[in-house]
Recover the amino acids of this structure.
């Protein structure tokens, strides 16, 4: 049986992962951040519609949107984007660290379900009620492949309703 492992994720950890990803993207595009900082700051200001002092001036949510934008533009580039729970999206470097509980599943579809659920802003334990309503089961591990697919599609639809302008898990 595939077990899940509970993990506490800090906002600063998500920040570090996003930072690594963004610097990798900038370098892959031939414009490393350190060398073309002024160009990137101008890009950020146009992209977000506000003045940006540096990469650390962006919230986790803004950085998430930026990474998703690059995932959409460059589907062939392998870009890792850690899930950012809704309640951590406003966090910036320099703020007191915040934590979020994440469950690590071995099954890729189950991981996607929990990532989407976190993106919607819910705690992992709150998914039980949805599972009871939709499938009359208590845990994701009891779902068959078709039920997991239906649940992923349902959660994607709910996410699309909230984040209309974000191209995330979209058809490419």
């Amino acid at each position: 049986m595939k077990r899940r492992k509970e993990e506490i994720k800090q906002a600063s950890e998500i920040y570090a992962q996003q930072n690594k990803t963004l610097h990798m993207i900038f370098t892959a595009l031939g414009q490393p951040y350190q060398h073309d900082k002024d160009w990137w700051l101008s890009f950020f200001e146009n992209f977000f519609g506000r003045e940006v002092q540096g990469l650390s001036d962006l919230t986790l949510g803004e950085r998430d949107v930026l990474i998703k934008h690059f995932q959409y533009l460059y589907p062939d580039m392998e870009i890792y984007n850690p899930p950012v729970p809704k309640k951590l999206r406003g966090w910036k470097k320099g703020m007191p660290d915040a934590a979020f509980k994440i469950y690590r599943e071995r099954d890729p579809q189950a991981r996607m379900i929990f990532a989407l659920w976190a993106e919607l802003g819910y705690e992992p334990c709150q998914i039980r009620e949805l599972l009871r309503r939709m499938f009359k089961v208590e845990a994701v591990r009891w779902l068959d492949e078709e039920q997991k697919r239906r649940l992923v599609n349902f959660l994607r639809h709910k996410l699309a309703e909230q984040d209309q302008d974000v191209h995330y898990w979209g058809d490419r």
